[in-house]
Amino acid sequence: MADQDTRAQLAEHLRMARELGVEGLSRDPAWRARAEDAVPRRPFVADSAERPSSEESFANADVERVPAGASEREMLPMIRDDIGDCTRCKLHTLGRRQIVFGVGNPAADLMFIGEAPGADEDIQGIPFVGRAGQLLTKIIEAIGLTRDEVYIANIIKCRPPENRNPEPDEVAACNPFVVRQVQAIRPKVIVALGSFAAQTLLRTKDPISRLRGNIFTYGDAQLIPTFHPAYLLRSPERKRDVWEDMKKVRNLLQADAPDPS
Ligand code: SF4
Q1: Rounded to an integer, what distance in angstroms lies between the CA atom of residue 191 and that of residue 198?
Q2: I need a labelling partner for 7 at 20 to 30 A (CA). Which of 33, 57, 60, 84 fits?
Q3: Range 180-200 average pLDDT
Q4: SS3 sequence, 10-27?
Q5: pTM more than 0.90
């Protein structure tokens, strides 16, 4: 039975890898080459005096700092308590059912940050549970992890009406909470899902098509922008690009992992 389960999981993993554009597996050592060997790391560099670097954005966020000695498990509930039944922006009057805080391992090495809850997330109170969420789960599993091992959150915690883009005042009010979540979790790698998350975290207006393919720094983490799973549902031909980004994520995580030998 265990062998059957393993075979079924392996078959699902390979099927997803194929969907993401992986054409085969190889014993070639280059297949396991570290991201730093293959991808030049590009620190985020502000290109204008008005645009602060992501590090400045992280450090200067108008948020409470993590108390010394507080563990991730203690910090996340404190942040959730601070949000409370939030009325800090107008989204609380525009039909939200509940606040969608975040889900996953509070000590995760890998964190995914998306834009805002959709209809399914608003109902369930969990980020990325609709069709896009199911695709995100497959993307996570394609690099050998599970949803329970990573942390998933959004920039905006309440569903915008008709899934419209969040507005600047809403971002200003809500962004400090995801910054605090990052400070609490201290992931090694952050994947910014889609234009909105990448642009907000990196304080840039560059489109995701220009941002992806690069590795940025965000606080102590390395940040990889990639396409949002909802976009992949509309444009499946871009799965190959996401797979390339996820290979970098996997390699960055492995680069820091202790040598098992
Ligand atoms: Fe509060 Fe954020 Fe919801 Fe606005 S979107 S009401 S700031 S939790």
Answers
A1: 9
A2: 33
A3: 97
A4: HHHHHHHHHHCCCCCCCC
A5: no
Measure 100 CA to ligand 1 centroid, in angstroms: 10
Distance (Å) from CA 88 to ligand 1 centroid: 6
**The domain spanning residue 99 has which CATH number?**
3.40.470.10
Query: Helix, strand, or coil here: 122?
Result: helix
Atom of ligand 1 nearest to the CA of 170: 4
How do residues 2-19 score in pLDDT, each as one tens digit? 566 666 656 655 665 565
- Closest listed residue to residue 66, CA positions, set 224, 155, 157, 176: 176
255 contacts 34 by C-beta, under 8 angstroms: yes
Query: 179 lies in a domain?
Result: yes
Is the distance from the beta carbon of residue 136 to the nearest atom of ligand 1 less than 6 Å? Answer: no
Is residue 83 lining ligand 1, measured as CB closer than 6 Å? yes
pLDDT at 260 over 90: no
Which residue range(s) make up the domain with 245?
72-256
Residue 168: inside a domain, yes or no?
yes
Q: Does residue 11 form part of some domain?
A: no
Is 136's pLDDT higher than 60? Answer: yes
When divided into structural domains, the chain yields a total of: 1
Q: Under a CB-based contact definition with an 8 Å cutoff, are residues 221 and 179 in contact?
A: no
Q: Yes or no: say if 106 and 70 are a contact pair by the CB < 8 Å rule.
A: no
Q: Which residues touch 131 (CB under 8 Å, ≥6 apart)?
A: 230, 233
Asked if residues 42 and 215 have their Cβ atoms less than 8 Å apart, the reply is yes
In the predicted structure, residue 226 carries a pLDDT above the cut 60 = yes
pLDDT of residue 40: 36
* 4 inside domain: no
What is the C-alpha separation between 189 and 217, in angstroms, rounded? 9
